[in-house]
Amino acid sequence: MAMVKHRSVGYLKTGEVAELLGVTRQTVLNWLKRGTITEPERNPMTGYRLWTEKDVERVRRTLREAE
Description:
The protein is mainly α and 67 residues long.
């Protein structure tokens, strides 16, 4: 039987967000650095970005408006 890795429900990694948007992880990081998109909330213990589906939709909306 295959093992399934579980993690906090509702949060995505930056790489997963990039995949959903059809870009590379580095592109997402560049957008964040330039201020093209806003930073998601971060885990106060680890500093990791806590991307949600709402964040992904906000990024999509921002990118459509910039076209």
